[in-house]
Amino acid sequence: MSEPRAINFDYNLIKIMNEVIISGNISKAAENLNLTPSAVSLSINKLRRHLGEELFYRTATGLKPTATALDIHDSFVNAITIIEDVLHSSRTEGPSGAILRVMCPDVLEDYYFNRMYKNDSVKSAKVEFSNSTNIKSDEMVRSLLQANIDVIISHHDLKHDKITSIKIDAMDEFVILCGANSLLSNQKELALMHYYALPHAVYNDGVYNDFTGLLGTTLTINTPYAGLVKVIYRSSSINGIISALERSDMLTVLPRVLADYFIRERHCKLKYFDLPEEISINDSPVYMNYLTNSSKRRYVHLVMSQLKSAESI
């Protein structure tokens, strides 16, 4: 009896093809795999001959996978995810369940997940976090496609035909936040001159570095002379920002729901004011991004429902 063809098959060929699909061209795939472009091309041709079907076709924007290549890619990602889950679970939690790997800014981890775990009415999923600080959008997409991360929660949706992005929240009202003992704390309301007079602490969620780009939205000042904002402290740590406000006369701009959370639930020594009428800020959306065909879809949906339950508390 002859052996099945799969026994002698070199599965590294699929790994190489998968990287070409993700990278969009052979040169970039070769760089990511630490191979030469000719070695990648030879591997793709070897896989094509083995299957007897074309795997890519050329377009003006680069190589595009055929339907056959995409089918193999989907199966490969699912298989690798399942294997990694089994290996990871056996090392950490035993065979009892998978761990959902979540990437997000620390402020979203703090606000959403801490509240979720405090809610006794839901059974919390097992979650492992990594911070999205200084991670570019294309790197986030790659992390999902390569199954290194299961979910990315961000203030913007990731654009890719293999990724599902669901809007789970919208932070639609912003305030100016300062320390409870700052120079502003005795004011009844805040004027634009206060906004310019005092130094600012700016939270950087790792994606938007411009001060006018705030948590995925834009700050606009409607006045002939907008003035200059004195930013003296910038951090990707929300706890660093809160600590700076509590110990100084600095101020910052955050959504009202976050300000309420840090004052009422985290008991931080802060005070907030409505924005001066000259300042307007668009809604700040929050998206949950995940691989559409992820083998962990049910865990993703479980966490999504739990986050919404926590939000309604």
Report a brief summary of the structure.
With 313 residues, the protein is of the alpha+beta class. Helix content is 39%, strand content 24%. It is elongated and about 75 Å long.
* Low-pLDDT windows of residues: 206-212
Global Rg: 24 Å
**What is the terminal-to-terminal distance?**
64 Å
What is the count of structural domains?
3
CATH fold category name of the largest domain: D-Maltodextrin-Binding Protein, domain 2
CATH domain class of the largest domain: Alpha Beta
State the secondary-structure class. Answer: alpha+beta
Number of helices: 10
Walk across the major sheet and give the strand order: 4-3-5-15-6
**Helical amount:** 25-40%
Overall strand count: 15
Q: Overall mean pLDDT score?
A: 82
CATH architecture name of the largest domain: 3-Layer(aba) Sandwich
Largest sheet: 5 strands, mixed
The ordered H/E elements are HHHEEHEHEHEEEHEEEEHEHEEEH
**Strand content bin:** 15-25%
C-alpha geometry: elongated
Q: What is the CATH superfamily classification of the largest domain?
A: Periplasmic binding protein-like II
Report on the structure:
There is one protein chain. This protein is of the alpha+beta class. 39% of the residues lie in helices and 24% in strands. The chain contains 10 helices and 15 strands. The protein has helices at 12-23, 26-33, 37-51, 67-92, 106-118, 137-145, 192-197, 238-246, 256-265, 297-311; strands at residues 56-59, 62-65, 100-104, 127-131, 151-154, 163-171, 174-179, 200-203, 213-214, 217-221, 231-235, 251-255, 270-274, 279-281, 284-291. The longest helix is centred in the N-terminal third of the chain and has 26 residues, at 67-92. It is elongated, with a radius of gyration of 24 Å. The chain starts with 11 loop residues before the first helix and ends with a helix. Mean pLDDT is 82; it is low at 206-212.
